[in-house]
Amino acid sequence: MNVLIIGAGYVGTTTGLLFAELGHSVTVIDVDQKKINDLQKGKLFFYEPGLDTLLTKHLASGKITFENDHQRAIKDNNLIFICVGTPQNQDGSANLHFLREASEFIASNLNEYKIIVIKSTVPAGTSKQVKLWIENTKKDPVSFDVLSNPEFLREGNALHDALYPDRIILGSENDKATALLQELYKGIKSPFFVTTPSAAELIKYTANSFLATKISFINEIAILCDKLHINVQDVAKGVGLDLRIGQLFLEAGIGYGGSCFPKDVLALIDTAKKNNIDLSILEKVHAINENQPGYLFKKVKTRLISLAAKKIAVLGLSFKAQTDDIRQSPSLKIIQNLINEGAIVEVHDPVAKLPGNLVDTVCQKDSAEEAITNADAILICTDWPQYKNINWAGIKNKMNSPIIFDGRNMLNTAEMRSIGYIYEGIGYN
Ligand SMILES: NC(=O)c1ccc[n+]([C@@H]2O[C@H](COP(=O)([O-])OP(=O)(O)OC[C@H]3O[C@@H](n4cnc5c(N)ncnc54)[C@H](O)[C@@H]3O)[C@@H](O)[C@H]2O)c1
Ligand SMILES: O=c1ccn([C@@H]2O[C@H](COP(=O)(O)OP(=O)(O)O[C@H]3O[C@H](CO)[C@@H](O)[C@H](O)[C@H]3O)[C@@H](O)[C@H]2O)c(=O)[nH]1
């Protein structure tokens, strides 16, 4: 099958490579010419394990093409996936500006029947809105269908999640279009659930908000655990053994970040508000998450008292391991707090880089060991597995004072204390 992808970001690039891997012929377009130029040369603009190899493979196989001629791309393809960004507006609502632009561009080049699939995360009812935008812009009486096929991949696991998703959700009211999409995904052995476009759109936000709720819930329990001197990891394990609850997304820490959970929780709150529905549970989820980086910071202040001129090593910048994405990363909030209190901050991350506003005030080191040397304390902000393998016994004597605040509960408490560290995690860890 021939497929066109609009938007060569995380989702568009991964989806394009997935379809190429399934044997389809994929064309990808993006308004960002530099991204297209780089992708044509096999260069990914983000760090995502395994994706670069697949890109090289399918550029060579000719199954994926990154195209500059956008009009021709629309005219030549009758199955189009929209994967543009839907960022957060100031009031928390989803910004559909890029989606509207892409829809109207399709409309002005609508030469024959097309199936338009929205993969971007969009509020319930957006498929209907896209239909209207296209109807109002198209020049000729050509028919089309708009479907919803939300994406559930995680950054850092994009390839695995694309090839082995827990489910494929399709919002479609046209049986022929549904059959075509089922054919497109034929190689994927996962449940294929068909519902209305609006329900598909709401499933996406509900899933992300539920996972965010699990995280905020365990983070609140962790604060109680600190007070009661009970280990939150034991509590999470015992609770998660109940199959109705499950073990995943019960890791207490410094809160969720990234380009999805924070914005999607706020967008669902906005949808509820616009419909006069009280979704206060999600307002609380958001508020807890806003406070969680500050909770670790408070522990630092309580122990060190003054941070002025203290050297603090921060391990991890990205919002989670296996990605260089620093959007909404709790690590950045903590670094800002440290700077505000006069601390000298040295950071390390295996792949992520400091944002422009921090490069002059914070020093990024090439290795964790360099950042730790002469530090008055270490703050672990991202759960990069390599931090477990630091020679903790060896490096202890290079610190001014051996104190670790583990915002991801990733090190072994007993081991760290036996080496001689003052070690504090989240939730009496
Ligand atoms: N990043 C993730 O892990 C993830 C996972 C699931 C769902 N989503 C959702 O998928 C959508 C895309 O996310 P992303 O992370 O890939 O975003 P992104 O910002 O990485 O990529 C979006 C791309 O769309 C391009 N674009 C914007 N307007 C365009 C237009 N009119 N024509 C062509 N290209 C255009 C941009 O230049 C950009 O390259 C969002 O709605 C997001 O919430 C993201
Ligand atoms: O027990 C946990 C699990 C995660 N996190 C944090 O939660 C955030 C999000 O993690 P994760 O869900 O793994 O990353 P994303 O790549 O943001 O993926 C989420 O957002 C995507 C975009 O919508 C969805 O497609 C995915 O299904 C959904 O998991 C990160 O900061 C994690 O550190 C925790 O604090 N505790």
From TrEMBL:
Signal peptide (residue range): none
Positions with a binding annotation for NAD(+): 30, 35, 86, 121, 155, 263, 327
Enzyme Commission number, as recorded: 1.1.1.22
Catalytic residue positions: 260
Catalysed transformations (reactions): UDP-alpha-D-glucose + 2 NAD(+) + H2O = UDP-alpha-D-glucuronate + 2 NADH + 3 H(+)
One Pfam family hit: UDPG_MGDP_dh_N
Record carries keyword Oxidoreductase: yes
Residues that coordinate or bind substrate: 152-155, 204, 249-253, 257, 320
Pathway given in the UniProt record: Nucleotide-sugar biosynthesis; UDP-alpha-D-glucuronate biosynthesis; UDP-alpha-D-glucuronate from UDP-alpha-D-glucose: step 1/1
UDP-glucose/GDP-mannose dehydrogenase C-terminal domain sequence ranges: 313-413
The protein's name in its UniProt record: UDP-glucose 6-dehydrogenase
